[in-house]
Request: fold
Amino acid sequence: MREGKGMEGKGIIHSATSPSNGTGKKKRNPADRYAYPEDFMQFWSEYPRRENKAQAFKEWETEKKHNPKFTHEKVLQAAVAYAEEVAGKERGFIKMPSTFLHRGTWLEKVYLPEEATA
Reply:
């Protein structure tokens, strides 16, 4: 915590971790105001690195629209498998969720039986 610039002796304190919007209330993350679908939130809760939810949701929607192999169950299975694989690793070595979802990267972590027999 530090005293506000130019406010010496006024007792106004700003926290680096809880920015204020001037009303004394903490700023809200705009992504928290959006109601994400339940299937995405299940993925989000299983994924080992929860950062940049809005970008991850954008990639989720893109994959859902353009990837014929996309199903909620397969992506969830891939997220669980990836979480197990990276358990104990430093945060910097874990893919961002948007990267994991981008252009079928998640397919590397899911077993697709229809491809195994083909």
User: Anything to note?
Assistant: Residues 72-86 form the longest helix (15 residues). The chain is about 40% helix and 5% strand. Strands lie at 2-3, 13-14. The first strand starts at residue 2 and ends at 3.
